[in-house]
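Sync notes, pocket subgroup
Present: LS, DG
LS reminded everyone that the earlier model was apo-only. Rerun requested with phosphoenolpyruvate included. Inputs:
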Amino acid sequence: MTNKYKYFVANWKMFGETKNIKSISRVIELSKLRKFSKAKIVYCPPYTLLYEFVKKLKKTKIEVGAQDCHEANTNGPFTGSINSKMIKNLGCKYVIIGHSENRISGDTNELINKKIKISLSNNLKILFCLGENFKEKKNNKTKRILASQINKGLKNIKNIENVIISYEPVWSIGSGIVPKHNELKNNILFIKKILNKKSKLKNIKVLYGGSVNPKNVKDLSKIPQIDGFLIGGASQNINKFIDIIKKTFN
Ligand code: PEP
């Protein structure tokens, strides 16, 4: 049982249709129970469902975020993109930036920095994803990569109060493999140490993401430095997502 707030960010990636929204009612009911009052649930569905989610979750404690945004602050000729102002206007509170699936398709640390700055200026909270890939881990470069992603991604950003880090080793995403307890704890502590140097804020949140499921969440929750989870695959299954929340607080 934990007394700290814990985040449960559901990243639906490119999955989900309007018919799937009905099942969210069960998560809404769960969020009303006292036992789960410290659960901060954030749904990040694909752009096509954002408005429906905002409507459905309006009078609840559950919040909504987008999975990415364009770095421009104005409208413009960017086919297929939406910017953080549009996301904010829709009623979203969060945006995921720097997800490894987007880094792989071209998001550099510099572009991520622009996206973060613009999104903060539009009063969105940032779910800033970072993590090493398998080759970097094998070559003992994890800490160097994490430091570089943080320093470049948050370059010239003084106020990081609205930035939540999600540490997601790339080799763990969707693979069913989670880092060993000690390795995870050390990396989370390392991230917190860098952030503490950058900012006087004491309470910077660091989530873990990568193959979180109902079977491993209890163990992962034993690492007190983890402030919650970003959940991809398992969040798209309503039973698994509910189980993850329940097991964290049991
Ligand atoms: C993710 O989408 O960031 C993620 C962690 O996915 P999964 O839980 O499926 O590994």
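DG: DSSP finds ten helices and eight strands in the chain.
LS: Residues 11, 13, 99, 168, 173-174, 209-212, 230-234 surround phosphoenolpyruvate (CB under 6 Å).
Action: DG to write up.
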